[in-house]
Structure formats: structure tokens, C-alpha cells
Amino acid sequence: MLRLFVLLCSLVTGVLYADVKVTDATVRLLPPGVPNTAAYFSIQNHSDKRQVLIGAFADFVAKAEIHNHVMVNDMMSMQQQSEVVIQPGESVHFSPGGLHIMLFGLKKPLTEGQSVTISLQTKEGKSIVITANVARPSAHSHH
Ligand SMILES: [Cu+2]
Hints:
CATH topology: Immunoglobulin-like
CATH class: Mainly Beta
CATH superfamily: PCu(A)C copper chaperone
Strand content: over 45%
CATH architecture: Sandwich
Helix content: under 10%
Distance between the termini: 26 Å
Number of helices: 1
Bound molecules: copper (II) ion
Number of strands: 10
């Protein structure tokens, strides 16, 4: 049983390079016709160097950006982030209402349970490739 669980997890969540690990990667499934969506995951830095995310790429959308929700004049709005720093030994959570990968302009409709690939660019010029599972918002609860 445990082995099956581990296998399923590694299929659904993501991978990594070196000492950076991505887990619980999901892309929100929205109603047909909604052009933009978002990706969420947790990223853990097991290395002894800080990791700096500076951008994202996904071939199934026109454009991907790192976003955060911020308060501007008492209004919650989203802003693109030029850097997200993950200190050695720390984790950063991308989750609804906070950091997310904004996915603009879906090239074709997503389906529930589909796997999609997103890569995160680091300041060092590396790509962290994530396999994310397409899921309905209600199917995935976050802290
Ligand atoms: Cu956004």
C-alpha cells in the first residue's frame, strides 16, 4: 500500500533538479471559456544555497508569470513578482490567495486529472521542471 501511494505521489507531483523539491503541484481547473488560470505547489530548498525563482514557462499557455496577492489601497490585487527567494532549508508555498504561477491564455481547454508541465526559471539560469495535476479548486484544499 505504501509503495503504491509513493508511486502515485511521484506521478502526480513534481520533480526537481538537485536539492530543490516541488510537491503538491496542481493547476486549477476553471469553467470552459475562462482563458487564465493558476498553478500552486510547495517548493523545498534542501540545498545549502538560496534559490531565487525569477520566472516561469509553460507551453500550454501564452504566458506564465510569478504572481502574489497584495493589498493596494485596501483592495486585494495580483502583482507580478520579479523574484521569489527560498532560503536554504526552507519551503515556500504557492497557494490560493498568495503566491501562484499565473497562466495566461490557455491554448486549449484543460481536463480534470490531466498532467501538465511547467518550468520555473532560477536566477542561476536553471529550470525546475514541475509536473502538475489539473484539479478542480474544491478538490484540493490548502492550509
Ligand atoms: Cu495572478
